[in-house]
Amino acid sequence: MFNVMKWRKVASFISVILISVSIFLIYTKGINVGLDFTGGVQMNVSMKDSNTTIEDIQNIIDEENIEIQKSTTPGDFRITVGVIENPMQQSDNIKEKIGHYVESFNSVQVVGPKFGQELVQKSVYALILSLIVITIYVSFRFSIPFALGAIFSILHDVILLIGFFVVTQFSFTMVSVALFLMLLGYSINDTIVNYDRIRENLSKVSNTLLSDTINQSVNQMMRRTIYTSITVIASVLPMAIWGTSVLQEFGMIIMFGIFIGVYSSIFVANAILIPLKANR
User: Fold this and answer.
1) Strand partners of residue 70
2) How far apart are CA 39 and CA 170, in angstroms?
3) Which of 2, 72, 114, 142 is deepest in the core (most CB within 10 A)?
4) Given this model, what pLDDT does residue 16 score?
5) Distances from the Cα of 210 to the Cαs of 73, 152, 216, 219, in angstroms?
6) Could you give the dihedral angle defined by the CA atoms of residues 251, 38, 80 and 171, in that order, rounded to the nearest 10 degrees?
7) Measured CA distances, 140 to 133, 134, 147 (Å)
8) Mean pLDDT calculated for residue range 179-206
């Protein structure tokens, strides 16, 4: 039987370090906010010459505040110009400059700065509302120690996920917000299932140490947790390896979120129950 509580102090130390580093990087380096929030132009293009390089496109467009990413498909690029006052005019200018060299414009996205600000507000409201709803749910579902453990586990996941975006500098877009909500749901579901088993085992015996009951409960749920996580990771791993740059980011975010969710539901959420002396 895997002794989870034996490693709780080590896990708590690791979590404190990761949270501290994440907060430091968030304030010093910042998140790479995507086009959805800043406003601007994003184009996915296929060049006539498959040997075209990023430097070639930069020389052709000759604009400031431009980001060019090469796709896994030869000759395909993603061109992003952010934080501009007139994105429609900028889009036309870029098309005019590179039109002669482009085989096809696969997609063109234009977002105005005002619309981007509205998306920022709505995204923040969505994340805050989801955290409030989860907090209310676990507060009514469990006793105070369990509720505090679940809430702290959620905050732990949120900070580390944001820290992951800062470290990788992946573009934070509306898709990222959806991923955030999905991964938080996955994590809290794992935590609640684990807590249900702990509470059930606590009700069966009254003279067993809380740490022994937690170890028993985690080991009872370990196989389910591992199989579920492996299934999800196996479904997104091909995207993270062979997908386009967008799909690679998508796959890596999900895999990191699943790992953090499992880690927090086993170590973080359970470790808090000991000092709080949780009971059924």
Assistant:
1) 77
2) 17
3) 142
4) 92
5) 55, 19, 10, 14
6) -20
7) 11, 10, 8
8) 83
Give the model confidence (pLDDT) of 87-97 as tens digits: 677 778 888 88
Q: Which two tokens stand for residue 32?
A: 């790479």
For residue 210 the two structure tokens come to: 């809380």
Structure tokens at 124: 């923040």
User: CB neighbours (10 Å) of residue 89?
Assistant: 12
Tokens of 272: 């808090």
| Sheet containing strand 102-111, strands side by side | 66-70, 76-82, 40-47, 102-111
What residues contact 82, with CB distance under 8 A and at least 6 apart? 35, 38, 39, 40, 65, 67
CA-to-CA separations, 213 to 34, 71, 73, 277, in angstroms, rounded: 45, 51, 53, 12
Write down the pLDDT at residue 164. 94
Give CA separation, 242 vs 72, 113, 183, 237, 251, in Å: 8, 33, 22, 9, 10
Q: What SS3 class is residue 102?
A: strand
* CB proximity list for 64: less than 8 A, separation 6 or greater: none
Residues 262/190, Cβ–Cβ less than 8 Å: yes
What pLDDT was estimated at residue 22?
93
Ordered structural domains, the chain, with CATH: 5-34+115-276 (1.20.1640.10), 40-111 (3.30.70.3400)
Please choose, from the candidates 192, 226, 196, the residue with its C-alpha nearest in 3D space to the C-alpha of residue 213: 196
Cα–Cα distances in angstroms (integers) from residue 97 to residues 17, 24, 46, 61, 169, in the given order: 48, 41, 15, 6, 29
CB 280 within 8 A of CB 203: yes
- pLDDT tens-digit map of 8-65: 888 889 999 999 999 999 999 888 877 777 777 888 888 888 888 888 888 887 776 7
* Predicted model pTM: 0.78
